[in-house]
Amino acid sequence: LASLNHVAPALQPQTAPAANTQMAALVDRHAAAAGVPAAFARAVVRIESNYNPRATGRAGEVGLMQIKYQTARGLGYTGTRAQLYDPDTNLRWGMKYLALAWKLGGNTHCGAVLRYQAGHAATRATAASNAYCAKVRRHMAAN
């Protein structure tokens, strides 16, 4: 997901401290509701979109958590792709997907990001998943 992420030049990540604080609080709320550690969830959002709710990935990933529309629909989402750009909506469905990855990954950072990035059926770590996990750990250590 993150490796495919690109952002249109006119849509820059939120950089104002207050905006990031508000968005982090929203991430924390959705993480708690989904049973995902907040620091881990914030690291994933930072890597996926740099807290930019308008981020769009090259493979169709959407919003803060760079969730694909079809993935959200597979989890029960019935809204439109455009509605996934709404931070609250995106975090609800993205956290639901991350929570499943967290459980399938044995409640470990690396196991969860492997399944978040490569799909819930993934079981073998790759160079990409190892690099993603290292980024998650760096972001968590910095916060």
TrEMBL record:
InterPro entries: Lysozyme-like_dom_sf, Transglycosylase_SLT_dom_1. Residues 28-129 form the Transglycosylase SLT domain. Signal peptide: none annotated. Belongs to the virb1 family. This is CAZy families GH23 protein. It comes from uncultured Starkeya sp.
